[in-house]
Amino acid sequence: MTISILGADYISFYDYAKIKGLSVGSMINRAKKGKYNTAKRLGKKWYASRTELDNIYYQYGIPDSEDFITAREYSKINELVYTTLIEDIKNGKYSTPLKYKATWYINKTEVPCSNIRDEYLTITEFAEQNNRTRKEIEKIIDSGKLKYFRKSPLGYIYIHKDEKLP
User: Fold this and answer.
1) Backbone angles phi, psi at 145, to 5 degrees
2) Domain of residue 83, residue span
3) Which of 19-23, 73-77, 117-121, 127-131 has the lowest mean pLDDT?
4) Which of 42, 75, 77, 124 has the maximum number of C-beta atoms within 10 A of its C-beta?
5) Which of 26, 29, 104 is nearest to 59 (CA)?
6) Same domain, yes or no, for 77 and 123?
7) Which residue has the higher pLDDT, 24 or 65?
8) Same structural domain, 51 and 75
9) Angle at the Cα of 89 (from 87 to 95), degrees rounded to 5?
10) Model pTM?
11) For helices 13-20 and 24-32, what crossing angle results, to 10°?
12) Distance in angstroms (rounded) separating the CA atoms of residues 45 and 1
């Protein structure tokens, strides 16, 4: 149900969660912690600005574009192992994936990242390879002592497998 408060469209958490496949309980907990600027409780129901919620949860929902296909379809088209593709998506090696409920979608024009997987390691993998902790590697990266690393569109860091520690 949408209501108007001071000229803005507010939607109930229940309705928004149903549309986007989210947990109402999680949304209420976030509201209680002050994570939503526009959250209001009216009786037993919670509401927030539809615009604010859309800005926060833009990645949730079935993509409207016909350019998006399921990860399973993408793996078949690009001859990839499905479980490896999902692992790479979760590790931020792709820039366009969207998840709706239990299904991942990806832009069918995105180039597979198999070369990244072959040449780069996650911080955790690099730390294990060099008998260091993840925190130690992060400090070395922050100090600027590593030259060959990449940052994914989601902010994950990958270090070239041939990188040498200082």
Assistant:
1) -85, -15
2) 68-112
3) 117-121
4) 75
5) 104
6) no
7) 24
8) no
9) 160
10) 0.40
11) 130
12) 10
